[in-house]
């Protein structure tokens, strides 16, 4: 072994080795994996379309806030989305789940 390594105190050796350890791989999110394939496919289609410039994010259709999420009314039409802020996106889902007509 090299002299610098043999002269290193044990706690410094441990620090050095810990920094060099490969980070554990992230496991797929269980909730994401349990979503229906059609829903995941629609999500990735929108993600890729935004990345490639084929789809542009728009302001919330209810309040006009710039930071929005894409909402699918029909997952079989992945690029037909409504742009809603987090607040109105959540409201839309809660109204849908409760059986009420959502805006």
How would you summarize the topology of this molecule?
Blueprint: H1 3-6, H2 10-20, H3 30-34, H4 37-52, E1 69-72, E2 81-84, H5 86-98
Antiparallel strand pairs: 1-2
Describe the 3D structure.
This protein has 103 residues and is mostly helical. The protein has a domain at 36-103. It is 48% helix and 8% strand. It has 5 helices and 2 strands, in the order ααααββα. It has a two-stranded antiparallel sheet with strand order 1-2. The longest helix has 16 residues, at 37-52. The protein starts with a helix and ends in a 5-residue tail after the last helix. The mean pLDDT is 87.
Shape: elongated
Instruction: Tell me the helix content.
Output: 40-55%
Helical element count?
5
Q: Which H/E pattern describes the elements? A: HHHHEEH
Annotation keywords:
103 residues, mainly alpha, two-stranded antiparallel ribbon, 5 helices, 48% helix
Summary, kept brief:
By secondary structure, the chain is mainly alpha-helical.
